[in-house]
Amino acid sequence: MQRLFAVIRNVLLFSFVLCCAFLPSAAAQSCGAKGIALQVLGSGGPELQDKRASSSYLVWEDGQARVLIDAGGGSALRFGESGAQMSQLDVIFFSHFHEDHSGDFPALIKSSWFEEGKRPLPVYGPEGNDFMPSTVEIVYDFFGDKHGAYRYLSELLVPGEEGDYKLQPHNVAGTAKPAEVFRRGGIAAQAVRVVHGGVPALAWRVEMGGKVIVFSGDTNGEGAGLPQLASNADLFVAHNAVPEGVTGVERNLHMPPSVIGQIAGEAHVKQLVLSHRMLRTLGKESQTQSEIEKKFSGPIKFANDLDCFPLN
Ligand SMILES: [Zn+2]
């Protein structure tokens, strides 16, 4: 009798493994099943001790992950956890090429190798300068057949062969005023040049399904381009990398809460999400929030990895 129970228990255990081992996690496919939603893949900065993936965002439409913005270190794991598939993406936009915005790009591209339904994947990002590669350059630095670090994947970059999966990198000459960069399949995107020290950097405005999401990227907030780009956005993702009162190099690279509030208020955005949270801003949320509220009266949320913001 005892043996019979043991057999039944084993059968039950085995069927549990069969049925449930391959079910997606609770987070999978729970974002953007209907309408437009923003999912934060990485809410942290470059420090690993913040226990967050670095910058990366997905825009979902009706259960499809259609737009990826940045791919910082750690974000490829979050991409998998989100339930998204690389083959669903229509386009990738990069704000700039610091590692915390681009480090997991090769991991995502390699993963896509194993997926069906391959098609061209356009990649847009800034031009280069003496210190940073351009978008075309960095894609070739990774995957070029002659000198690419991952030249064994160069087949993913060879032009031609209609309908096949190919990376299509494009340099965007950042302009002082927002300019349209991409329009296809119901997705429209504008970019504007932003100041991030000496690094060529862009902020992005993505319009889909009647909703507008704007991504500041890393910037110190100088110039009129970002408030114009963010005008009346349904959601504005701003990077909370430095606390109020910071000076020197940090202030030259990033905007403090008062500047975020100024831009969000001036642009009349409907909702503000704070991301790129670093050790120097984590734990200072109430101070950050009250600084922003001096200039912006809408809802403010502090992002965590895999947070989902539906816009319907
Ligand atoms: Zn950054």
Key descriptive features of the protein:
312 residues; alpha/beta; seven-stranded mixed β-sheet; 9 helices; 25% helix
Describe this structure in words.
This protein has 312 residues and is α/β, with parallel strands linked by helices. 25% of the residues lie in helices and 24% in strands. It has helices spanning 2-20, 75-82, 99-102, 105-112, 135-143, 225-229, 248-253, 257-267, 285-293, and strands at residues 36-42, 56-61, 64-69, 91-93, 121-126, 167-172, 179-184, 187-194, 201-208, 211-215, 235-239, 272-275, 300-302, 308-310. The protein has a seven-stranded mixed sheet with strand order 6-5-4-3-2-1-14. The chain has a seven-stranded mixed sheet with strand order 7-8-9-10-11-12-13. Strand 5, helix 5 and strand 6 form a beta-alpha-beta unit. Helix 8 runs parallel beside helix 9 (285-293). The protein binds zinc ion. Residues 45, 55, 98, 100-101, 218, 276 line the site of zinc ion (ZN). The site of zinc ion has 7 residues, from helix 3.
